[in-house]
Design goal:
This protein is α+β, with helices and mostly antiparallel strands. The chain has 6 helices and 25 strands. The strands form 4 sheets. It has an 8-stranded antiparallel beta sheet with strand order 6-2-3-4-17-16-15-10. Strands 14-11-12-13-25-24-23-18 form an 8-stranded antiparallel beta sheet. α1 packs antiparallel against α2 (71-80) and α5 (265-275) packs antiparallel against α6. The longest helix has 11 residues, at 7-17. The radius of gyration is 25 Å and the shape is elongated. InterPro entries: DNA_clamp_sf, DNA_polIII_beta, DNA_polIII_beta_C, DNA_polIII_beta_cen, DNA_polIII_beta_N. Forms a ring-shaped head-to-tail homodimer around DNA.
Length: 371
C-alpha cells in the first residue's frame, strides 16, 4: 500500500474511529486501526468487537492495499503534525509502515489485515432516515440518565421505540438509572413503524452523538433486534444492542401530581448551583420549601455548614417541603430549552415531573430524597 493524504482529511477520519479502540487490550489486533487504500480513498476501520466505525477520506492512491497499525499512536502522530502537511503512508518496507510528512519520519509496527475482525451486522430489516439534528436532540435530552450500574445491564443504554400509529406515530427515547427518568420524542420517520424496541448501549450512544455534529446531515438508520447501523455521509457505525428487556417505564411516570410550580429556569439553576457548593459529595441533598409564590433552597452539611437562597416562583398550592439530589436537578435543568420550567409535585415522598413550560416533547421524572 502506498498512499498520500492531507493531514486534515486523515485527522478527521481518525478522530471518528480511534475513540472506539480501548486503551488496554488483551487482543493485540483490537488496538489497531485497519487502513485500506483503493479507488482514491483511504478507508479506516476500528472495533472493540461490540462496536465498529468505518470512515473514508479522499487520498491519492499510488498502490492499493491494506494493513493495520496502532490506532491511538497513529492518531497522536497525525495530531502533532503541522497544519497543511501532506502525509505519505507506505507498507513496502516489510513489517513496518513508513509514515512521512516533510522531514518527519515514523515507522509503525503492523499486524496483518487478515486478522482484523469484522462485525457482521447480518440482516437489518428496519431502515429509515431522519435529520441528524432530530436524532441528536433525542440523545442529548436523555443520555445523562443512563445507568452506570453494571448489574442492571438493561438500563445501560437508551431505549428507542415507536409509540402510536399512522400520522401520530412518535419515535421515543427513554433512559433511567432508577433515581431519574428522561423521556424525549420526535415524529417517527417513514419506515420506523414496526421497529423492535431496542436498547442502544451507553458507549454506542456517545459515539453516535459525536457523529451527528453536522445539523444539516441526514442519519440513515438500519436495525434488527440485535444490531444497529448508522450511516452519516462516509461514516458508518455498526453496533450490537443490549440483549435485555427495558422495564415498563410508564408505571413510574406519575399521573396525579396536581401541585404545579413554575419558575425561571436560569435563576433556579444558578441558585441550586450556589447552595450546593457546601453539600457533601455523598449527600448532595438540597431542600426546597414552597409557599406563597416563593421557594427557599437550603443545604445543610454537618461537616461544613449550611446555605440558603430564595426565589420568587409561581406556586399557589399548599406549602410543601421536598428534597432532591442537587446534581440530578442541575442535569435536568441543563436539558430544558425554554425560559420557564414546570414542576408537577404530589408529596415529599413521591416522584416529581419536570418539563419545559408548554412543551411535551421531553419529560423528566425525579425521585425525591429525605432531607
Amino acid at each position: 500500500m502506498k498512499v498520500t493524504i492531507e493531514r486534515a482529511n486523515l485527522l478527521r477520519a481518525l478522530n471518528h474511529v480511534h475513540r472506539v479502540v480501548e486503551r488496554r487490550n488483551t487482543i493485540p489486533i483490537l488496538a489497531n486501526v485497519l487502513l485500506r487504500a483503493e479507488n482514491d480513498r483511504l478507508s479506516l476501520k476500528a472495533t472493540d468487537l461490540d462496536l465498529e466505525i468505518v470512515d473514508r477520506a479522499p487520498a491519492q492512491v499510488d498502490q492499493p492495499g491494506s494493513t493495520t497499525v496502532p490506532a491511538h499512536m497513529l492518531y497522536d502522530i497525525v495530531r502533532k503534525l503541522p497544519d497543511g502537511a501532506e502525509i505519505q503512508l507506505d507498507t513496502s518496507e516489510g513489517t513496518t509502515m513508513a509514515l512521512r510528512a516533510g522531514r518527519t519520519r515514523f515507522a509503525l509496527q503492523m499486524l496483518p489485515d487478515s486478522d482484523f475482525p469484522d462485525l457482521n451486522a447480518g440482516d437489518l430489516p428496519v431502515a429509515f432516515e431522519m435529520p441528524a439534528e432530530a436524532l441528536k436532540r433525542l440523545i442529548d435530552r436523555t443520555q445523562f440518565a443512563i445507568s452506570t450500574e453494571e448489574t442492571r445491564y438493561y438500563l445501560n443504554g437508551i431505549y428507542f421505540h415507536v409509540v402510536g400509529a399512522g400520522g401520530e406515530a412518535r419515535l421515543r427515547a427513554v433512559a433511567t438509572d432508577g433515581h431519574r427518568l428522561a423521556k424525549a420524542e420526535a415524529p417517527a420517520p417513514v419506515g420506523a413503524e414496526g421497529m423492535p424496541g431496542v436498547i442502544v448501549p451507553r458507549k454506542t450512544v456517545g459515539e453516535i452523538q459525536k457523529l451527528l455534529e453536522d445539523p444539516g446531515a441526514i442519519a440513515k438508520v438500519s436495525l434488527s433486534d440485535a444490531k444497529i447501523r448508522l450511516a452519516v455521509g462516509d461514516i458508518v457505525l455498526t453496533s450490537k444492542l443490549i440483549d435485555g428487556t427495558f422495564p415498563d417505564y410508564e408505571r413510574v411516570i406519575p399521573r396525579g401530581n396536581n401541585k404545579v410550580l413554575t419558575l425561571e429556569k436560569a435563576d433556579f439553576e444558578r441558585a441550586v448551583d450556589r447552595v450546593s457548593t457546601i453539600s457533601s459529595d455523598r449527600g448532595r441533598a438540597v431542600k426546597l420549601t414552597l409557599a406563597d409564590d416563593r421557594m427557599v433552597l437550603a443545604v445543610n452539611n454537618p461537616d461544613s455548614g449550611s446555605a440558603s437562597d430564595e426565589l420568587p416562583v409561581d406556586y399557589d398550592s399548599e406549602p410543601l417541603e421536598i428534597g432532591f439530589n442537587s446534581r440530578y436537578l442541575l442535569d435536568i435543568a441543563a436539558q430544558l430549552t425554554t425560559d420557564e420550567a414546570e414542576f408537577r409535585l404530589a408529596d415529599p415522598g413521591s416522584p416529581t415531573l419536570i418539563q419545559d413550560k408548554g412543551e411535551s416533547d421531553a419529560l423528566y421524572v425525579l425521585m425525591p430524597m429525605r432531607v
